[in-house]
Amino acid sequence: MTTMKQTMYIVRAGGRREVVPSGLLGMVIFVGTEVMFFAGLISAFTISKAGSPRGAWNLPAGQVLPVTSTAVNTAALFVSGALLWIAGRQYRARSSAATQTLAAATFFGALFVMLQGREWVGLIGHGVTLWSSALGAFFYVIVGTHAVHAVAALAGLGVAWWRLRAGRLSDGFFLGAQTFWYFVVLIWPVIYARVYF
Amino acid sequence: MTQMQRILAFKTSRRVSIAASLLTAAPASALACPVCALVGTSNNTWAYQAMSAMLTVLPLAMVGAIVWWLTRLAARADTERQPARQRVVDRAPVGGAEEYSLALSEGQIRRGRAIDG
Lengths: 197, 117
Prior knowledge:
By secondary structure, chain A is mainly α.
Protein backbone atom coordinates (compact mmCIF):
# COMPACT_ATOMS: atom_id res chain seq x y z
CA MET A 1 0.00 0.00 0.00
CA THR A 2 1.36 3.40 -0.91
CA THR A 3 1.61 6.09 1.74
CA MET A 4 0.37 9.65 1.13
CA LYS A 5 3.94 10.92 0.70
CA GLN A 6 4.72 8.31 -1.93
CA THR A 7 1.53 9.13 -3.83
CA MET A 8 2.47 12.82 -3.94
CA TYR A 9 5.87 11.87 -5.35
CA ILE A 10 4.16 9.96 -8.16
CA VAL A 11 1.98 12.94 -9.02
CA ARG A 12 4.96 15.27 -8.95
CA ALA A 13 7.16 13.01 -11.01
CA GLY A 14 4.49 12.16 -13.55
CA GLY A 15 2.78 15.56 -13.87
CA ARG A 16 4.97 18.65 -13.43
CA ARG A 17 8.66 18.94 -14.08
CA GLU A 18 11.01 21.91 -14.32
CA VAL A 19 12.75 22.17 -17.68
CA VAL A 20 14.24 25.61 -16.98
CA PRO A 21 14.93 27.36 -13.65
CA SER A 22 12.09 29.73 -12.76
CA GLY A 23 14.57 32.55 -12.11
CA LEU A 24 15.97 32.24 -15.61
CA LEU A 25 12.56 32.09 -17.28
CA GLY A 26 11.41 35.15 -15.32
CA MET A 27 14.53 37.04 -16.34
CA VAL A 28 14.10 36.08 -20.01
CA ILE A 29 10.53 37.43 -19.99
CA PHE A 30 11.69 40.59 -18.19
CA VAL A 31 14.47 41.10 -20.71
CA GLY A 32 11.87 40.75 -23.48
CA THR A 33 9.92 43.68 -22.03
CA GLU A 34 13.14 45.68 -21.67
CA VAL A 35 14.01 45.03 -25.32
CA MET A 36 10.64 46.52 -26.27
CA PHE A 37 11.28 49.49 -23.99
CA PHE A 38 14.58 50.27 -25.74
CA ALA A 39 12.99 49.58 -29.13
CA GLY A 40 10.43 52.28 -28.32
CA LEU A 41 13.16 54.76 -27.36
CA ILE A 42 15.22 54.02 -30.47
CA SER A 43 12.08 54.24 -32.61
CA ALA A 44 11.26 57.69 -31.20
CA PHE A 45 14.87 58.78 -31.75
CA THR A 46 14.93 57.54 -35.36
CA ILE A 47 11.63 59.19 -36.34
CA SER A 48 12.54 62.48 -34.65
CA LYS A 49 15.97 62.53 -36.27
CA ALA A 50 14.53 61.77 -39.71
CA GLY A 51 11.92 64.49 -39.29
CA SER A 52 14.22 67.22 -38.06
CA PRO A 53 15.06 70.05 -40.49
CA ARG A 54 18.41 69.78 -42.28
CA GLY A 55 21.30 70.82 -40.01
CA ALA A 56 19.11 71.06 -36.92
CA TRP A 57 20.04 67.68 -35.42
CA ASN A 58 23.12 68.90 -33.54
CA LEU A 59 24.49 69.47 -30.09
CA PRO A 60 24.82 73.12 -28.97
CA ALA A 61 27.99 75.16 -29.62
CA GLY A 62 29.33 72.78 -32.25
CA GLN A 63 29.87 69.97 -29.77
CA VAL A 64 29.98 66.37 -31.03
CA LEU A 65 29.36 63.12 -29.21
CA PRO A 66 32.61 61.38 -28.13
CA VAL A 67 32.57 58.53 -30.64
CA THR A 68 36.19 57.36 -30.20
CA SER A 69 36.34 57.30 -26.41
CA THR A 70 32.97 55.56 -26.34
CA ALA A 71 34.42 52.89 -28.62
CA VAL A 72 37.01 52.19 -25.91
CA ASN A 73 34.23 51.97 -23.31
CA THR A 74 32.37 49.60 -25.61
CA ALA A 75 35.45 47.37 -25.78
CA ALA A 76 35.51 47.23 -21.96
CA LEU A 77 31.85 46.18 -22.01
CA PHE A 78 32.52 43.42 -24.55
CA VAL A 79 35.48 42.16 -22.48
CA SER A 80 33.14 42.02 -19.50
CA GLY A 81 30.58 40.00 -21.49
CA ALA A 82 33.26 37.58 -22.71
CA LEU A 83 34.60 37.12 -19.18
CA LEU A 84 31.10 36.41 -17.89
CA TRP A 85 30.66 33.77 -20.60
CA ILE A 86 33.92 32.13 -19.45
CA ALA A 87 32.80 32.40 -15.82
CA GLY A 88 29.57 30.62 -16.77
CA ARG A 89 31.51 27.72 -18.30
CA GLN A 90 33.74 27.53 -15.24
CA TYR A 91 30.72 27.63 -12.93
CA ARG A 92 29.09 24.74 -14.78
CA ALA A 93 32.35 22.80 -14.54
CA ARG A 94 32.37 23.56 -10.77
CA SER A 95 35.77 25.24 -11.17
CA SER A 96 36.99 27.48 -8.35
CA ALA A 97 38.36 29.91 -10.96
CA ALA A 98 34.78 31.06 -11.66
CA THR A 99 34.95 33.41 -8.64
CA GLN A 100 37.93 35.34 -10.04
CA THR A 101 36.53 35.42 -13.58
CA LEU A 102 33.17 36.67 -12.32
CA ALA A 103 34.93 39.38 -10.32
CA ALA A 104 36.90 40.42 -13.41
CA ALA A 105 33.68 40.56 -15.49
CA THR A 106 32.08 42.77 -12.84
CA PHE A 107 35.16 44.99 -12.75
CA PHE A 108 35.14 45.59 -16.53
CA GLY A 109 31.40 46.25 -16.41
CA ALA A 110 31.93 48.81 -13.65
CA LEU A 111 34.78 50.32 -15.68
CA PHE A 112 32.38 50.84 -18.61
CA VAL A 113 29.87 52.64 -16.38
CA MET A 114 32.58 54.82 -14.81
CA LEU A 115 34.07 55.80 -18.19
CA GLN A 116 30.61 56.65 -19.48
CA GLY A 117 30.03 58.77 -16.39
CA ARG A 118 33.29 60.61 -17.05
CA GLU A 119 32.11 61.37 -20.60
CA TRP A 120 28.84 62.71 -19.25
CA VAL A 121 30.67 65.05 -16.88
CA GLY A 122 32.69 66.37 -19.84
CA LEU A 123 29.59 66.90 -22.00
CA ILE A 124 27.68 68.65 -19.23
CA GLY A 125 30.74 70.88 -18.70
CA HIS A 126 30.51 71.90 -22.37
CA GLY A 127 26.86 72.87 -22.04
CA VAL A 128 25.27 69.69 -23.41
CA THR A 129 22.30 69.07 -21.14
CA LEU A 130 18.92 67.39 -21.30
CA TRP A 131 17.33 70.69 -22.37
CA SER A 132 20.04 72.05 -24.68
CA SER A 133 18.77 70.30 -27.84
CA ALA A 134 16.63 67.40 -29.03
CA LEU A 135 19.74 65.30 -29.65
CA GLY A 136 21.00 66.08 -26.13
CA ALA A 137 17.66 65.08 -24.64
CA PHE A 138 17.56 61.77 -26.54
CA PHE A 139 21.22 61.11 -25.74
CA TYR A 140 20.80 61.50 -21.99
CA VAL A 141 17.51 59.58 -21.86
CA ILE A 142 18.64 56.59 -23.95
CA VAL A 143 22.23 56.31 -22.73
CA GLY A 144 21.17 57.16 -19.17
CA THR A 145 18.51 54.45 -19.19
CA HIS A 146 21.12 51.98 -20.41
CA ALA A 147 23.44 53.09 -17.60
CA VAL A 148 20.70 52.49 -15.02
CA HIS A 149 20.25 48.97 -16.41
CA ALA A 150 24.02 48.43 -16.34
CA VAL A 151 24.21 49.48 -12.68
CA ALA A 152 21.30 47.15 -11.76
CA ALA A 153 22.91 44.27 -13.66
CA LEU A 154 26.25 44.95 -11.96
CA ALA A 155 24.51 44.77 -8.59
CA GLY A 156 23.16 41.37 -9.64
CA LEU A 157 26.63 40.21 -10.69
CA GLY A 158 28.05 41.49 -7.38
CA VAL A 159 25.48 39.51 -5.39
CA ALA A 160 26.20 36.44 -7.56
CA TRP A 161 29.92 36.83 -6.86
CA TRP A 162 29.30 37.19 -3.13
CA ARG A 163 27.10 34.10 -3.02
CA LEU A 164 29.55 32.11 -5.16
CA ARG A 165 32.33 32.93 -2.71
CA ALA A 166 30.12 31.86 0.18
CA GLY A 167 29.10 28.68 -1.67
CA ARG A 168 25.42 29.68 -1.65
CA LEU A 169 24.92 30.60 -5.31
CA SER A 170 21.95 28.89 -6.99
CA ASP A 171 21.89 28.02 -10.70
CA GLY A 172 18.73 30.08 -11.21
CA PHE A 173 20.21 33.26 -9.71
CA PHE A 174 23.46 32.96 -11.63
CA LEU A 175 21.70 32.32 -14.94
CA GLY A 176 19.34 35.23 -14.29
CA ALA A 177 22.19 37.65 -13.51
CA GLN A 178 24.11 36.36 -16.52
CA THR A 179 21.11 36.84 -18.84
CA PHE A 180 20.53 40.40 -17.66
CA TRP A 181 24.18 41.34 -18.16
CA TYR A 182 24.19 39.81 -21.65
CA PHE A 183 21.17 41.97 -22.43
CA VAL A 184 23.05 45.08 -21.24
CA VAL A 185 26.08 44.10 -23.33
CA LEU A 186 24.17 43.23 -26.51
CA ILE A 187 21.76 46.18 -26.54
CA TRP A 188 24.66 48.66 -26.24
CA PRO A 189 26.05 48.30 -29.82
CA VAL A 190 22.57 49.05 -31.16
CA ILE A 191 22.36 52.22 -29.05
CA TYR A 192 25.94 53.20 -29.92
CA ALA A 193 25.39 52.76 -33.65
CA ARG A 194 22.08 54.59 -33.62
CA VAL A 195 22.74 57.51 -31.26
CA TYR A 196 26.44 58.29 -31.76
CA PHE A 197 26.54 58.22 -35.58
CA MET B 1 -27.81 25.45 -42.36
CA THR B 2 -29.34 24.92 -45.80
CA GLN B 3 -27.36 24.54 -49.03
CA MET B 4 -28.33 28.07 -50.11
CA GLN B 5 -27.16 29.57 -46.79
CA ARG B 6 -23.83 27.77 -47.13
CA ILE B 7 -23.35 29.16 -50.64
CA LEU B 8 -24.21 32.69 -49.47
CA ALA B 9 -21.83 32.43 -46.50
CA PHE B 10 -19.03 31.21 -48.79
CA LYS B 11 -19.63 34.06 -51.21
CA THR B 12 -19.65 36.63 -48.40
CA SER B 13 -16.37 35.36 -46.94
CA ARG B 14 -14.84 35.37 -50.41
CA ARG B 15 -15.95 38.97 -50.97
CA VAL B 16 -14.49 40.01 -47.61
CA SER B 17 -11.19 38.27 -48.46
CA ILE B 18 -11.00 40.02 -51.84
CA ALA B 19 -11.81 43.41 -50.28
CA ALA B 20 -9.15 42.89 -47.59
CA SER B 21 -6.58 41.93 -50.22
CA LEU B 22 -7.36 45.05 -52.23
CA LEU B 23 -7.01 47.22 -49.12
CA THR B 24 -3.58 45.77 -48.31
CA ALA B 25 -2.52 46.60 -51.87
CA ALA B 26 -3.22 50.30 -51.20
CA PRO B 27 -1.39 51.12 -47.94
CA ALA B 28 -1.22 54.87 -48.60
CA SER B 29 -4.88 55.21 -47.71
CA ALA B 30 -4.20 53.61 -44.29
CA LEU B 31 -1.15 55.73 -43.45
CA ALA B 32 -1.67 57.27 -40.02
CA CYS B 33 1.60 58.99 -39.18
CA PRO B 34 1.05 62.15 -37.09
CA VAL B 35 4.69 63.22 -37.39
CA CYS B 36 4.73 62.80 -41.17
CA ALA B 37 1.80 65.19 -41.53
CA LEU B 38 3.72 67.88 -39.63
CA VAL B 39 6.99 67.60 -41.50
CA GLY B 40 6.05 65.82 -44.69
CA THR B 41 9.49 64.57 -45.69
CA SER B 42 9.85 61.23 -47.42
CA ASN B 43 12.76 60.44 -45.09
CA ASN B 44 10.49 60.76 -42.08
CA THR B 45 7.79 58.64 -43.68
CA TRP B 46 10.33 55.91 -44.33
CA ALA B 47 11.57 56.08 -40.71
CA TYR B 48 8.02 55.88 -39.39
CA GLN B 49 7.18 52.85 -41.51
CA ALA B 50 10.46 51.07 -40.71
CA MET B 51 10.04 51.63 -36.98
CA SER B 52 6.39 50.51 -37.14
CA ALA B 53 7.52 47.30 -38.84
CA MET B 54 10.27 46.80 -36.23
CA LEU B 55 7.90 47.35 -33.29
CA THR B 56 5.43 44.90 -34.85
CA VAL B 57 7.86 42.13 -35.70
CA LEU B 58 10.14 42.33 -32.64
CA PRO B 59 7.65 41.20 -29.94
CA LEU B 60 6.30 38.43 -32.17
CA ALA B 61 9.84 37.23 -32.88
CA MET B 62 10.74 37.28 -29.19
CA VAL B 63 7.61 35.38 -28.12
CA GLY B 64 8.25 32.86 -30.91
CA ALA B 65 11.89 32.47 -29.84
CA ILE B 66 10.94 31.89 -26.19
CA VAL B 67 8.28 29.31 -27.13
CA TRP B 68 10.75 27.54 -29.46
CA TRP B 69 13.43 27.54 -26.73
CA LEU B 70 11.04 26.11 -24.10
CA THR B 71 9.76 23.48 -26.52
CA ARG B 72 13.32 22.42 -27.29
CA LEU B 73 14.20 22.22 -23.59
CA ALA B 74 11.08 20.15 -22.87
CA ALA B 75 11.86 17.80 -25.77
CA ARG B 76 15.43 17.40 -24.53
CA ALA B 77 14.20 16.67 -21.00
CA ASP B 78 11.86 14.01 -22.44
CA THR B 79 14.63 12.29 -24.39
CA GLU B 80 16.90 12.38 -21.33
CA ARG B 81 14.15 10.77 -19.25
CA GLN B 82 13.73 7.86 -21.66
CA PRO B 83 16.96 5.97 -20.79
CA ALA B 84 16.30 6.48 -17.05
CA ARG B 85 12.80 5.04 -17.48
CA GLN B 86 14.27 2.07 -19.33
CA ARG B 87 16.81 1.43 -16.55
CA VAL B 88 14.05 1.44 -13.95
CA VAL B 89 12.00 -1.01 -16.04
CA ASP B 90 14.99 -3.32 -16.28
CA ARG B 91 15.46 -3.27 -12.51
CA ALA B 92 11.75 -3.22 -11.65
CA PRO B 93 10.72 -5.78 -9.01
CA VAL B 94 8.11 -8.35 -9.94
CA GLY B 95 5.37 -6.90 -7.79
CA GLY B 96 2.64 -5.52 -10.01
CA ALA B 97 1.90 -2.12 -11.47
CA GLU B 98 1.91 -0.25 -8.15
CA GLU B 99 5.49 -1.19 -7.21
CA TYR B 100 6.66 -0.50 -10.77
CA SER B 101 5.05 2.94 -10.66
CA LEU B 102 6.73 3.77 -7.33
CA ALA B 103 10.12 2.54 -8.50
CA LEU B 104 9.78 4.61 -11.66
CA SER B 105 8.83 7.83 -9.89
CA GLU B 106 11.54 7.47 -7.20
CA GLY B 107 14.13 6.87 -9.91
CA GLN B 108 13.05 10.05 -11.68
CA ILE B 109 13.11 12.06 -8.46
CA ARG B 110 16.62 10.90 -7.58
CA ARG B 111 17.77 11.76 -11.08
CA GLY B 112 16.14 15.21 -10.93
CA ARG B 113 17.86 16.02 -7.63
CA ALA B 114 21.20 14.96 -9.02
CA ILE B 115 20.78 17.37 -11.94
CA ASP B 116 19.69 20.22 -9.67
CA GLY B 117 22.55 19.67 -7.23
